[in-house]
Design brief:
single chain, about 475 residues, 6-stranded mixed sheet, 19 helices
Length: about 475
């Protein structure tokens, strides 16, 4: 196998300038001509093995320093130029490589400046949210990725789309599925669209949940999915075909700014439509009221998963008939927020959802168990919260399974209408767990769970006093 050529012009030049040498002096020490050294520094000649050994011997440098790539500097620059503010500025990665190799200190300084910019942007976002809660709108904004724009749009918008609900009701009547919605959908796809549905083994379809092959007119679904998740994938495909005009109209109404954001929104609305088809609005609302919103009972009755039934509860905001206005948060084990939605829009100004004391973070320690807790915000507003872990697609041997947790919440005033209200101890309604919107926006003192200081208060460090929190403030 041919050895990879090593072009290290920038690194050779740094060694020379750091030692205050001219090209003539360095070339003489290395036993080569100045013109040859000049070609090396301009990356027009590679380093030879003999020259590397000579550099190590004469200038006491590490061979890895001459052979290594741009390493951490290149990774940091990739992060900087992946920001939406700089998207499209560079035609390719070769310029990043050149900057990282030719000026690593400048690259590190640029990365440091970018981290400071992100920190300030986060603080501005926190302050903007705090002012919005107080009724003072701001014009603060930051560059966003399409996925961020879609998330924020769906979080603000009530998780209820009447046009899709009406289309789903009509589609359900057309299918007349009885007890076998999956069979009815497969028959409709085959008879009306010429699309055959097949479940493929994991080794044949290792990276996809669902894939539609337009050439063979086949819809492939992964065997790694549960029966409920397979049904949702089939229902999504059918809804994206049958309800494409209604879905396109809803995407247009959201007024997103890019084609990528519109594509992501179409996917989200397709999933919404699938839930509406699997759990028809009126039937689901009636069953929810009769069961006192018992999610396990609803999941069993409609042959769906716990997550699907919980998500459907956040959509019961019809004008003619509505249910309890639930909201939902889903996070992974590292605390990354995956989605937020609510029947009236996610109540970010009232609830926040970023407090580490919320029960869905504790759910990871008790997989599969439903945890019920009453919580109170600093202003006294109280909520009933439910949390449980969710299992992702079936993991193969040796794979780490995907596990997330959802938190479903509503105003504590609805507790007597929920089967879960009886699970609260008598003291919980009187003294709910004190939480906050997020550490940066929370001014509760002495909080053991605090992860960051509040942006609204100066730190009050005193060498004579140590508080319970790692971030004491005045």
């Amino acid at each position: 196998m041919a050895q990879q050529k090593i072009f290290a012009g920038a690194r050779i030049r740094r060694i020379r300038t750091a030692k205050g040498l001219t090209q003539t002096a360095m070339a003489e020490a290395l036993g080569i001509s100045p013109s040859y050294l000049n070609l090396i520094e301009r990356n027009q000649r590679p380093l030879t093995a003999q020259l590397i050994l000579k550099l190590v011997s004469v200038y006491k440098v590490e061979a890895e320093e001459l052979q290594g790539g741009s390493g951490p500097s290149l990774a940091a620059l990739r992060e900087v130029f992946s920001d939406p503010l700089l998207a499209g500025e560079l035609p390719g990665e070769h310029e990043l490589v050149e900057v990282a190799e030719a000026a690593p200190n400048a690259a590190a300084a640029l990365a440091k400046l970018y981290r400071a910019y992100r920190e300030q942007a986060a603080r501005l976002s926190d302050l903007s949210e705090m002012l919005a809660r107080e009724g003072r709108a701001t014009a603060l904004s930051a560059a966003r990725l399409p996925v961020d724009e879609v998330r924020e749009t769906f979080e603000r918008h009530p998780h209820h789309f009447p046009a899709l609900e009406a289309e789903a009701e009509a589609f359900h009547r057309l299918l007349s599925p009885g007890e076998d919605l999956a069979g009815a959908l497969k028959a409709w796809l085959k008879d009306e669209q010429g699309i055959a549905v097949r479940v493929l083994p994991a080794d044949t379809m290792p990276n996809w949940r669902r894939r539609y092959d337009r050439h063979s007119q086949r819809l492939f679904v992964s065997e790694r999915l549960s029966a409920a998740d397979r049904l949702r994938e089939i229902a999504m495909e059918a809804c994206l075909i049958r309800m494409r005009v209604a879905i396109a109209g809803q995407v247009e109404a959201l007024k997103l700014t890019s084609g990528e954001a519109q594509r992501l929104a179409r996917f989200e609305l397709g999933r919404y439509a699938a839930h509406a088809l699997m759990m028809p609005y009126r039937a689901f609302l009636s069953a929810a009221e009769r069961s006192r919103y018992d999610i396990a009972v609803l999941a069993a009755r409609f042959r769906v998963s716990f997550e699907q039934a919980a998500t459907r509860l956040t959509t019961l905001a019809g004008q003619e008939a509505s249910g309890i206005p639930f909201f939902l948060v889903e996070v992974d084990g590292a605390g990354n927020r995956l989605r937020r939605c609510g029947a009236e829009g996610f109540p970010a100004s009232r609830f926040g959802g970023g407090c580490p004391k919320l029960v869905h973070h504790a759910a990871f320690a008790q997989p599969g168990h439903l945890l019920v807790e009453a919580v109170a915000m600093p202003d006294g507003e109280a909520f009933l919260t439910l949390a449980r872990t969710l299992e992702g697609p079936q993991a193969a041997f040796g794979e780490r399974p995907r596990r997330t947790a959802i938190l479903l919440g509503c105003d504590l005033a609805y507790a007597d209408r929920l089967v879960y209200g009886a699970a609260l101890p008598a003291s919980a309604a009187q003294a709910p767990v004190p939480v906050g919107p997020a550490c940066r926006l929370c001014e509760r003192s002495g909080c053991l769970a605090r992860a960051e200081p509040p942006v609204t208060r100066p730190l009050g460090l005193d060498e004579m006093v140590t508080g319970l929190s790692a971030f004491d403030f005045q």
